Amino acid sequence: MNWILFFATFYLAVLVGMYLLQTKLVYPGGEPRGNPEIYGGVGVQEIQLEMDDGVLLTHWFIPPTNKNLPVVVAFHGNAGHTGDRLSKLKYFTEMGFGLFQVEYRGYAGHDGTPSEEAFKADGLTALKWLDTQGYSKNNLIMYGESLGTGMAVWLAAQFPVKAVILEAPYSSIADVAQAKYWFLPVKYLLRDKWRSDLSILDVKAPVFIFHGENDEVIPIAFSRKLFELIKNEKQAIYFEDGYHMDLYDHGAEKNVREFVNEYVLNKLGQSEPLKAQKGNN
Question: What is the dotted CATH code of the domain comprising 45-173+195-268?
Answer without folding.
Answer: 3.40.50.1820
